[in-house]
Amino acid sequence: MSKDKTILRALAGETLPTPPIWMMRQAGRYLPEYKATRAQAGDFLSLCYNPELAAEVTFQPIRRYGFDAAILFADILLIPQALGADLWFVTGEGPRLSTITSQADFDKLKPVEAIHDTLSPIYETVKILSNGLPAETTLIGFAGAPWTVATYMIAGQGTPDQGPAHALKAENLPVFDAIIDRVTEATVLYLSEQIKAGAEVVKLFDSWAGSLQGGDFENYSLKPMQRITAELKALHPGIPVIAFPRGAGERYVGAHAAIGADCIAIDDGVTAEWAAENVQISGSVQGNLKSSHMVTGGDNLVSETKRIVKALSNGPHIFNLGHGITPDADPENVQLMIDTVRGG
Questions:
Q1: Is the pTM of this model over 0.90?
Q2: DSSP string computed for 155-171
Q3: Does the annotation count 152 as an active-site position?
Q4: Which of 30, 49, 152, 190 is catalytic?
């Protein structure tokens, strides 16, 4: 691990003259080379579990753009699958899982130690990436945070308001808590193996954190991520952790300390200026250009990129989008964003 890597320097709290840059979902459906590799794999899950092809799609945006970090190509729902849930993807609609809504459903899940039987190809992908990335490129591993993963396990698919998970929490709290605990324990093991295989940073994606209200936000978003972070840092001293409680709004304040994360990723629901005053004072921040600019491009992309860079220039900052890039994005707009960040 090179301490000269710009991502690692920003995560360690250093303010850099030019922020390092990577992009959520940077390996994906907006790139023609990804589409070709996906076709070669046959389907999405086959791509995730093929180490050579998963590594290839991870390398693609690094070759094309020279991002400062590569993020492992995988999916947050591989953990439920490894725990015994059925998982499949419906074209144009997204993931589907067998549901867990009762103690009997929960009892069918595998113990956490069994996840490696399914996930060993993912660790092999990380090894390929660790050995093949340019010396200056940081390798990021990741997992979904327990609340977000649990919402899919309970509903069997993505939902607008995570209603089924909220309902189970209200109606059968012991089962709900058991799901959160099982996913938390599995996530520690999963990310620990990614780190052993060569991941230099890990990121926790709590994509649906914003739907948690009151004390539930602390109990089911922050605390599980804090537990994962603490256990990983005990196992792997010095490993940097990025946490993304998406939709947190004003609750981003204090998130560094509450989670123990080295960096808090912010979505585009808050301004960079607000984040500089309220979040960056506690540590590194990542974000937060609207993904739509990757579709529309033009002067607005340039001006917004410059605004964010300027607003967060007085502290440690990793430039990124406020959420993942969308399939309708123009690859040329990605290059324009990068050139704007690096060219001033």
A1: yes
A2: HSS--SS-HHHHHHHHH
A3: yes
A4: 152
Task: Write down the catalytic residue from 75, 177, 216, 330.
Answer: 75
Nearest to 78 by CA among 68, 88, 64: 88
Closest to 322 measured CA to CA, from 149, 205, 159: 205
| 252 tagged catalytic | no
Task: Check residue 2 and give its pLDDT.
Answer: 55
Q: CA 20 to CA 221: how far, in whole Å?
A: 27
182 is known as an active-site residue: no
Q: Can you list the alpha helix ranges (DSSP code H) found in 101-219?
A: 103-107, 115-132, 146-155, 163-171, 173-197, 215-217
Residue 255: name the closest of 243, 241, 240, 239 by CA: 243
Helix, coil or strand: residue 284: strand
> Looking at 38, 182, 227, 246, which residue is catalytic?
38
Per-10-residue mean pLDDT, the chain, length 344: 83 98 97 97 96 98 98 98 96 93 98 97 98 98 98 97 98 98 98 98 98 98 98 98 98 98 98 98 98 98 98 98 97 98 88
Residue 1: predicted pLDDT: 47
